[in-house]
Fold this sequence. Notes:
Distance between the termini: 73 Å
Structural class: alpha/beta
Bound molecules: glutamine, zinc ion
Oligomer: single chain
Strand order of the largest sheet: 1-14-13-12-11-10-8-2
Number of helices: 28
Amino acid sequence: MKTSVIGYPRIGTLRELKFAVEKYLKKELTKEELQAIASKLREENWKVQKNNGIDFITSNDFSFYDNLLDTAVLLNIVPNRYRQLKLDALDEYFAMARGYQGDKGDVKALPMKKWFNTNYHYIVPEIDDDTEVLLVGSKPFDEYVEAKNCGIETKSAIIGAFTFLKLVKFTGKRTVEDSIADIARAYSDILNKFSVLGAGWVQFDEPALCMDLSEEDIVLFSKIYERILSEKKNTKVLLQTYFGDIRDCYNKVVTMPFDGIGLDFVEGKKTLELVKSFGFSENKTLFAGVVNGKNIWRNNYSNTVNLIRELGEYCNEIVLSTSCSLIHVPYTLKNESSLFQEYKKHLAFAEEKLTELSELKKILSCSDPASTEEYVDNQKLFNLPRNCEENTAVQSAVSGLSKDDFIRYPDSGEREKIQKAVFSLPLLPTTTIGSLPQTAEVKENRSNYKKGKITFEQYVTFIKGKIAEWIALQEKIGLDVLVHGEFERNDMVEYFGENLDGFLITEKGWVQSYGTRCVKPPIIWGDISRSKPITVDYSLYAQSLTSKCVKGMLTGPVTILNWSFPREDISLKDCAFQIALAIKDEVLELEANGIKIIQIDEAALREKLPLRKSDWHSEYLDWAIPAFRLVHSGVKPETQIHTHMCYSEFADIIKDIENMDADVITFEAARSDLSIVDTLSECGFKTQVGPGVYDIHSPRIPGIQEIKKALIKMLEKIPKEKLWVNPDCGLKTRGKTETVASLENLVIAAKEIRRSL
Length: 757
Ligand code: GLN
Ligand code: ZN
C-alpha cells in the first residue's frame, strides 16, 4: 500500500512566500531573490513529505498567487490588455492577479472567486475570441525537474481540463464547445512532455466533477478525456476528484482509461456507496481520500482501517490519500508553542497528516493491524472522551429552542414604520460597514499589548483615542450612522473566537485565503458560550461621544462557524445555534445599554453552501438562516438590525437572505457592476438595502459623479425609502487620507441626490 498527498500548503510555515511576494511587489526584492525563496520553500515541502514516507509527492502545487491562473498562463490564456503592458512574464502574471497601475498602463485585476466550498479564492481566467489555447508554459515541467534534482520523483498536479473549462470565463462569442479540441490538444501535449521527462504519474485535478452535472457536462468531460487519454504514453494519469462524490459520472469514469482515480471518502457522502454498487475497475488504482484535507482533527484509524478493508473487496490496488489538497489546513503543530499537549494530541495540521498517512500505511500492511503500536495509541485517543469543555447549560439551551425563538415580532413591515419614526434619518442614509483604517500604529498597539510591551490601560487608551478621532471625523464628514471602527479587532472571526469560551486560537495556524492573504481560523474545541460582554465597552464609549447613532458591530454565527475549524462530534447546526445564543446575549446587552442599531455581519454566509443544489436547504440553509434569526429575534421592534455580506452572487438564494429578517442589508456590489440591483428589484426584495457604491479593494478615490451615477442607477430599481448609501465593505485595509476623501465624496453625492428626490 502506498500514500499520496493531493497538494501541500505553499505560503510557508511562517508565511515566507507571502512576505517575499509583497516585498517583490514593492520592489524591495529582486526577481532572482524571490525565485530563490520560492525554490527553497518547494524543496522544504517535498522533503518534509519524503521524510514522512509519502510515496506520491506532488509538484506544481506551488504558486506565486493562484494555480488556476498558473494553468491559464501555461495554456497561453492571457487577455490582450495585460499583454499590451509589455511586462515580463512574472510581472504580467502579477498584473492579472492584482491589477497594474504604473508607467506602462492602468489595468484592473482579473476577478476572483471562491474555490468551490472553501475559503480559498481563485483568479478567473478569460478566454477571448482571439485567444489561442496552446501549451506555451513550462512551470509544471520545471518544477518536476527541480524536484527530481532534489532526488524526489513527483506527480505533477494540474487543474484538469474539465474543471478549467467550467471555471474560465468566455468573454466573446466563443463557447466551451469551440474550445474542446484546443484544450484537449494542450493537455495531450502536457502528457507527452511528461512522458519525455520520464514522469511516472500526472494528477489532473477535477473537483468540478463533484458538482451537479448535466448530460452536456458529462459529454463534455468524456469528449475531452477520450482525446487526452488516446495519446497517453508512459506517464500514468490520475483523475483526482475532491470536495464531494462523483455520483453523476462515476459509471462513466470507471470505464475510461485512467490509471488512477482519486475519490473523496470524507466529504463524498456517496463515494463508498458508489464503489460498492458499481464496483471499481480491475486495472486501475484507487486513490482513497481518507485523511481529511479540510479539517484539523486526528484521523480515527479504526474507522479508516475498516473502510480500506471494505474497499479492498472491490479494488485491486489502493493508495491512501488526503481527501483534498492540504492547502486548506495550517502547516504544522510544531510551531504552536502555547497550545497544551492535551489539545494538540487531538489535532493534525498538514505535517501531522503526513504522519497519519504513513502510520496508516504501516498499520494496513500488518497482518494484525489492531496490534500495532500506532493503532493502539490512536484508539486510546478516541476511546477516551475528548475533554471538550462541555457546557450543559448551553446544550440544554440549544435543545430547548422552540419555534418562537426564531421569530422576531412584529413583522418587518411594521418594524420599518416604527423605526422610521424613531430614527428620523434622512432619505438615503449614509453609513460605513464597520472597520476603519487599520494603520501601522493600530496594529502595533495590538501586537505591543500581546507581547506585554504595554499595559492593558495603555492599550485601551490608544483604542479609545482612535475611536474618538474617528467619531469626530465621521461627524465632520457628515455620515448619518456611525461606527466605532473595530480598532481592537485583528480579524472579524478570530476576535470573537478569542473572546468566547470554547475556541482554541493558534499562533501560526495560517491558511491561504487568496494570493498573499492568509487567515488564522480559530478551532472550535468545545461548547461555545459567552462569559462576559465582548463589544459593549467600546460601543458605549463611541456612542457617548456623539448624538448620532453608532452601530454595535458583531460577527454572525454562520460566519464565525464557517471561518473556524468546526467540531465533528456535534452537528454544524448545533454548533451554529450555540454561537448564535452567545452572540444573542451580546446583542441584548448592547440593546439594554442603549445601542439602537446593531450590525451582525454574515460575510461568509454563502461559503459552505453545498456544491449540490439538492443539498442547499436540507443540509445548510435550513439551519444557517434560523441561526441568524435566533441572534436577533429577541430585540425590541425599534432596535434596527443590520447585516452585511461580502459577495454579490445572490440571485439564487435571495429568498433565503430575505428570510434572515434583518432590517437593513449592506453588501458588495460596486465590483460586480451593480448586477445585484436587478436581482433585488426582480424579486421584490422587502428589506432595506445598501448595495456598496464603491469598491474598497483599491486605494482609488471614487468621484462624486461616479457615486451619484451608481445611486441613480440603484434608484431606478429600488424605492428611495429602502436605499442606504455605503461602501462595498469594511475599510480596514485602506489608508486614512483616501478613506476620508472617499467618504466625503460619498456623503456629498448622497446629499445631492437626496435634494433631487
Ligand atoms: N464589519 C466588518 C468590517 O467592516 C465586515 C468585514 C467583512 O465584511 N468582511 O471590517
Ligand atoms: Zn464585506
